[in-house]
Amino acid sequence: MKRFASFCFFSCNIVSLLFIFSTALDTISKDSPIKDGHTIVSAGGNFELGFFSPGNSKNRYIGIWYKNLPKGKEVVWVANRVNPLNDTSGILTISSKGIALLNSTRDVIWSSNSSTHLRNPVAQLLDSGNLVLKDGSGVNLKDYAWQSFDYPGNTLLPGMKIGRNLATGLYWTLSSWKSSDDPSPGRYVDRLDTSGYPQIFLWEGPVIKYSSGIWNGRFFAGGPNLKPNPYYTFEFVNNNKEIYYKYDLITSLPTRVVLNPAGLIQRFLWIGRNQNWFLYSTGQMDNCDRYALCGQFARCDINDSPSCDCLRGFQPKYQQEWDAADWSSGCVRRTPLECGTSDRFMKYSSVKLPDTRHSWFDKSIGLEECQMLCLKNCSCTAYSNLDVRDGGSGCLLWFNELVDIREYAELMQDLYVRMAASEVGSGQMGKTRKAIIATVSIISATVLGFLSWSAMRRKKRERGEREGKDDMEFPLFDLMTISAATNNFSSDNIIGKGGFGPVYRGKLLSGPEIAVKKLSKHSRQGLEELKNEVVLISKLQHRNLVRLLGCCLEGEERMLIYEYMPNNSLDFFVFDEIRRGQLLWEDRFRIAKGIARGLLYLHQDSRLRIIHRDLKTSNILLDSKLNPKISDFGLARIIGGDQHESRTKRVIGTYGYMSPEYAVDGKFSVKSDVFSLGVLLLEIVSGRKNRMFCHPDHHHNLIGHAWLLWNGGKALELIDECLNESFVESQVLRCVHVALLCVQKLTVDRPPVASVVFMLSHEEVALPQPKEPGFFIERSTAETDDSNEKRCINYNDLTLTILIPR
Q: How far apart are CA 243 and CA 131, in angstroms?
């Protein structure tokens, strides 16, 4: 009996110890770090966390994988994706600052970076696969200081989100592995876009490969195979705090969504009968799922051959390319819109709605009011319901081009595309009506044109000295007001000088400070450049463009009045030995991205497509918060939406910023501005002028010096010495990398400015290797001596004109 009692006592203690031990198997605390070779397992045994080497790699990573599935380690999350360990000495520890991974020298190579200070920090692996950091003082505490679900890798597990937290700014995105041997971020990113009505895009670098389409109340329009099923539920939440998609399990059947290294979004289910993962669905089902395969104003039907076809009332933009199965340039209208209530709408049923980045929506109004709103806006090209449930509700308007439309028989959603009334008519009646409208339009245009011409001639004769004001249609200031504001154009008020003449600081009696650009009588820029700037900038509104308040055209005086920029221009700081230290790296990087965004607006997002042609540091002004604003549009040119480049016999610009094709052949395009932007990025990083740069070991300019350093793996040597205490290495390297892509010799190699903005803003995106830059030719010693440098400094501040003979 005593032996039995002793045995029971011993057994109970063993069980108690095992219970205590088992409850700690899913946690990491200060006293129980994880070493390589050891793991923790979630309480229900679903997931395991520990060190692993993917595929054939010898590198070591901290990851989470399914515990009891015999088909090898299906890793669903990796902590140190970009910083692997090269040996088995790693330790995963916990401190009051969060979770940290240490190498053999006890240096931190990855951490959770929790902003919450915890007294008794504990990391726990939940049965959902979520690694959470919390205060261990509580019981079942769900107030997490950090969680791995907020930082997805290539796998979306049940309960994870894809989207954005609007309150914190946190993005939940998927990013592919580079390969099965390398879990570092690969070429593909699945990310929510909130410009216009939200949708999810799959990106390959700066290029969109696939779009989910909008959430129509039931599922994503670009994924009709996402239907109610017995395995999982799904939802899309869109409120003022969060926008996200997620799914949850109905059964205990394991399922996961993976973005693989080839860029495919795949959903897998675990089949217990054959002990294997079953491919349940793929995001990209066929060729029509390729983003914008058919270009603008066209639709894709996988059951047709060819798959692409123009919408009714449209025709191929380039028929020869279309016949060769290159549909990327899309379609254009046969008949221009009349821009009024006489326009009609063509209904397209069962289609995936177009890209909504340039859209507007209102959930509270119906389809009829939606149509009226579209008719009142000349830029509106289509409308639709937002939600297909209960007969449809909400209003969604599109502006400009319609892209990425495809046929889907499963979709019960209609798209109404705006068309000229004559295109909706049919038969001889339609042709007759079209002819009548055309005849009346021609006669009306002729009469109105004659009357307008006569009125303009009469006004010019009456106003005489005020010639030019009628063309500008912009606020006019009288000379007395501007003279009083600038203290009679006192030399003490001069804040800058360029090829046009001096710039004065002034203060209007009504209060605001102004900057007055006064055209010099001896200026190489004349009235045409000044009028060009007024016409252009008066039509532009962007936070990274300087705001033009008005002009003064009185007597022989020609002046432009701008908002005053208290921090002068960018070159005022970066090229000055004393002031350069005032611009920390954080400021410079933000300025670089702001310049790129402003240029993107000019090239793509504004009502006009504008090439600046004189982008340089002195034309980047800084406001009181050091926000950059592009200025000086005197040399800018408007080009058509379908125009890729133009040519001029009068090459105007600034040496050191001109692209090779512009300086030599007079050819300019949006890629000319991209070249100038690349030079600006290098100057921002280095604090040195491109053309004035000299080095004891060679006679290259700044571009050539950056190229040499890059090829030698020494790009960080380019950085301005005053930034040694503030720079972020990854951002500097990315800035130099992007700059070298921008200054490549051939225009076709340079990225569009949209790609530049994307590359600067997303460090996880892999960048292509740059090719040799333009002007990679050493200068002679005579061109780089001290005397010449003084001469160059004078020229570099001026806008130059080169006349090229016919």
A: 23
The order of strands in the sheet holding 199-204 is: 174-179, 182-193, 199-204, 207-211
Q: What average pLDDT is seen over the chain?
A: 82
What is the C-alpha separation between 756 and 565, in angstroms, rounded? 26
Kindly tell me the burial class for residue 296, based on how many C-beta atoms sit within 10 Å of its own C-beta (0-12, 13-18, 19 or more).
buried
* List of residues 6+ apart from 681 with CB closer than 8 A: 592, 735, 736, 738, 739, 742
Angle, helix 729-742 to helix 670-686, in steps of 10 degrees: 150
DSSP symbols for 101-122: EE-TT--EEEE---SS--SSEE
Report the pLDDT averaged over residues 552-579: 86
Catalytically annotated residues = 614
The reported pLDDT for the residue numbered 455 is 61
CB 484 within 8 A of CB 525: no
CB atoms within 10 A of CB 226: 17
Long-range contacts of the stretch 380-386 (C-beta < 8 A, 24+): 380/418, 381/417, 381/418, 382/345, 382/354, 382/415, 382/416, 382/417, 382/418, 383/345, 383/416, 384/353, 384/413, 384/414, 384/415, 384/416, 385/413, 385/414, 386/197, 386/214, 386/216, 386/217, 386/361
Give the amino acid at 362. Answer: D
Question: Does 467 have pLDDT greater than 60?
Answer: no
What is the DSSP track for 492-508?
A: GGEEEEETTEEEEEEE-
Domains and CATH numbers, the chain: 24-151 (2.90.10.10), 288-424 (3.50.4.10), 469-563 (3.30.200.20), 570-803 (1.10.510.10)
pLDDT of amino acid 539: 66
Residue 464, amino acid: G
Q: Could you tell me which residue, 175 or 576, shows the higher pLDDT?
A: 175
Q: Tokens in use for 616? A: 């340089």
Residue 722 has what DSSP assignment?
G
pLDDT digits (tens, 9 = 90+) for 582-631: 899 999 999 999 999 999 888 877 766 788 888 999 899 999 889 999 98
